[in-house]
Design a protein that fits this description.
The chain is of the alpha/beta class. The chain folds into 4 domains: 120 residues, Rossmann fold (3-Layer(aba) Sandwich), CATH 3.40.50; 121 residues, Transcription Regulator spoIIAA; 119 residues, 2-Layer Sandwich (Transcription Regulator spoIIAA), CATH 3.30.750; 52 residues, OB fold (Dihydrolipoamide Acetyltransferase, E2P), CATH 2.40.50. It contains 13 helices and 18 strands. The strands form 4 sheets. A 6-stranded parallel sheet has the order 2-1-3-4-5-6, with helices on both faces. A 5-stranded mixed barrel has the order 14-15-16-18-17. α12 packs parallel to α13. The longest helix is centred in the last third of the chain and has 24 residues.
Length: 428
């Protein structure tokens, strides 16, 4: 049989989807493109915004149109968020899975084909244990994700994720180290640690994120270790010391700020003040020269007046991020922010557009710093005679010629061809 999978949302979903693809292959399924005529369509959904919900619905219905006789599997956060209504709202779905039991999706598919009975696998509450998944290979041979944590208990006032992902749960330390070691031995040069609340690793198993990093950086032949995202509150002194002392940890950190106004941060129930956040950024910049700091920003959260937005804009510019990931606020039912007076959509759009323009300016400014410099690039893909890869600080490079994926080469940065920097190989 032929199966395909479509992934929406975060890097945790990416990891989980990769696991499911590997399990399908082990069960002798042929893997097809999503737009092919397949026997099975799996949609790993997202619900972080209204737009994510809309995309999830669209892909589920698109799959049914592609093949009316196929088995349609919908799993993940959109399903979890709408679990009371999903069975009635979307009769297109044959197998319904929330954020538990993704690891047994192949068994559920086989059961469906045996019985032709609809399967609804939803829990009223989350199991407190981590759902183990173990991956030894990815579709690419350069970078591999490793999910080390699930769940969140921050309860930011705008966010539904704690309700759809459950309590914080961590992967066993020994299993994590074994998985990363296996991936490195299988040729992956860069490992990306991911989780719903990655920096909160270990809170449920008697350890912490610093201990995890200490063990990972000792793994032989690991070239790069990247943290997909970490909260400012989790950049403890111990974590900072490990970052300072280990060059295997890349020169790029994604540290969500969400707003650069103390008033809005308080309304969001974020766990820091602006000064506390800036203090963490300054400490990283002291220990990592030319570090790239990227962030998430929500525009139009309740309380964001035009005057408040000007404060936010000025502070974001002063912090001098390398790039902003900008998201207009999206109402999530049953959250505290949904009960506040809402910012009009046209105001949200104005604020979003201004921050997107600022992000472009900040990104160009950061890129220009490296023109004329020689940097190590880990190459990943080849398209139309060019090879593409990333530096440690996450500059996206392109060079003329076909360079083997997973090769680390020295490149001189010539000029900006946004969103890339064009470079030339430096002879060894």
């Amino acid at each position: 049989m032929k199966a395909s999978l479509y992934t929406l949302g975060c890097k945790v979903n990416t990891y989980e989807s990769e696991y499911v693809l590997n399990e399908l292959k082990k069960a002798n399924f042929e893997i097809g493109d999503f737009d092919d005529i397949n026997d099975v369509y799996i949609i790993n959904t997202c619900t972080v915004t209204n737009n994510s919900d809309s995309k999830s619905r669209k892909m589920i219905r698109h799959a049914r149109k592609l093949n009316k006789d196929a088995c349609i599997v919908a799993m993940g956060c959109f399903v979890e968020y709408n679990k009371k209504e999903i069975a009635d709202l979307m009769p297109e779905i044959d197998i319904v899975i929330g954020n538990k039991d993704k690891s047994i999706v192949v068994d559920l598919i086989n059961d469906f084909f045996l019985t032709k009975n609809r399967i609804i696998d939803l829990r009223d509450d989350f199991d407190t244990s981590f759902e183990d998944m173990y991956i030894d290979k990815f579709n690419t041979r350069t970078r591999a994700f490793v999910k080390v944590q699930d769940g969140c208990e921050n309860f930011c006032s705008y966010c539904i994720i704690p309700k759809v992902r459950g309590k914080c749960r961590s992967k066993n330390m020994d299993i994590t180290i074994k998985e990363i070691t296996t991936l490195v031995n299988n040729g992956y040069k860069e490992i990306i640690l991911t989780g719903i609340h990655t920096g909160n690793y270990g809170v449920d198993i008697g350890t912490n994120f610093a201990e995890l990093l200490k063990n990972i950086v000792k793994i032989p032949n690991l070239l790069r270790l990247r943290i997909s995202s970490i909260e400012a509150t989790e950049l403890t002194d111990e974590v900072m010391e490990i970052i300072k002392d280990n060059d295997v940890i890349v020169n790029h950190f994604h540290i969500p700020i969400q707003s650069a106004s103390n008033n809005i941060l308080k309304l969001m129930n974020r766990k820091y003040t602006l000064d506390e956040y800036i203090d963490k950024i300054n400490k990283i910049r002291e220990i990592k020269k030319d570090v790239a700091i990227t962030t998430d920003v929500i525009t139009g959260h309740p309380g964001e007046t035009d005057e408040e937005f000007e404060i936010i804009y000025d502070n974001l510019k002063k912090i001098n991020f390398s790039k902003l990931h900008v998201f207009p606020y999206s109402i999530r039912k049953d959250t505290p922010s949904s009960r506040l007076a809402q910012v009009p959509d046209y105001v949200k759009k104005e604020h979003t557009d201004k921050l997107l323009k600022l992000s472009y300016e900040l990104e160009l400014k950061y890129m220009k710093k490296f023109i004329g410099k020689k940097m190590d690039v880990l190459f990943e893909t080849q398209v139309d005679g060019y090879s593409y890869g990333h530096t440690s600080n996450y500059l996206h490079l392109k060079v003329l010629g076909n360079i083997k994926s997973s090769e680390l080469r020295k490149v001189i940065l010539i000029n900006i061809e946004y969103p890339y920097i064009f470079g030339e190989l430096v002879d060894d």
